[in-house]
Amino acid sequence: MKELPRADLNALLRQMPKAELHMHVEGSLEPELIFRLAQRNGVVLPYASVEALRAAYAFTSLQSFLDIYYAGASVLLKQEDFFEMAWAYFERAAADSVVHTEIFFDPQTHTDRGVAIETVIVGLAHACRRAHAELGISARLILCFLRHLSEDAAFATLEQALPYRDQFIGVGLDSSERGHPPEKFARVFARCRELGLHVVAHAGEEGPPAYIWSALEVLKAERVDHGVRCLEDPALVRRLVAERVPLTVCPLSNVLLRVFDTLAGHNLPALLDAGLCVTVNSDDPAYFGGYLNDNFAATFDALPQLNVAHAYALAHNSFEASFAPTAAKARWVAALDEVFARFRS
Length: 345
Ligand code: ADE
Ligand code: ZN
Fold this sequence. Notes:
16 helices, 8 strands, about 10% strand
């Protein structure tokens, strides 16, 4: 593929249509909205101001982030709170040329505070419908189980969610990875597969390659979220490449949570060069310094070996890795090809 001047490559990254497949909607809650919802709902926060909250975003590990992330989510009580949070994300996503997104939500973070699962799902699903109608974004929901809780708790959550089965397309596994291997959730994931739900799992973010193996072999995960530590195990890379199992990589998140020391040291180029089906995603954009295009821009800036062909591969992979119907994927790829042709002419 012909190279472009850097300014043109940056414009192409911004304008190319893309899918986002790894974004926790509770991680899109900006400090301003946290404070507005806290005031509206009478929730007292352990931070005096927006600035004080932002100043606390100095993470040393996944757990140090999760403690603040769960505190932020405590302001969400009503359907309209969930709607507003998701709508704010969709507006940002539309500005980043996102045409399809499969967003994670953590029901247990809310039901454990006494919020009904109906409140969560109905509010989010309303925002998804409006994103399609008003922004042209196709948006789907993936329900995540919190892996620091028990499998019985995950089963109870699945039971509560089943009346809303048509509002989400799959299940995932997130929260504290170390000490909570995928096999802890073998039975509940088997039940989800029987129900026809798609299954994905966070693995190989802080956890070892063995967790990626068990996400594949025990949970039968169709995508691995993060998965960056797969490069430590050549046999695992061969398996992921052979089966084209997508990895939803989140570069800014990985630096903020110290998975990599710097963006320049991120293994994204090596993952791509290994032939893996890698995608770029924002994870928790309100906490990690940026939305999807910020991730693309910062990553391509820090890693000058990334070029036009890599940009195309990442956008193409995002559609291929999505759970959208084949016809929709073909439409998005055609739109992607049109944008690339425009930049090459
Ligand atoms: N929940 C929100 N963001 C997460 C991440 N990066 N890893 C695990 N669980 C999460
Ligand atoms: Zn994540």
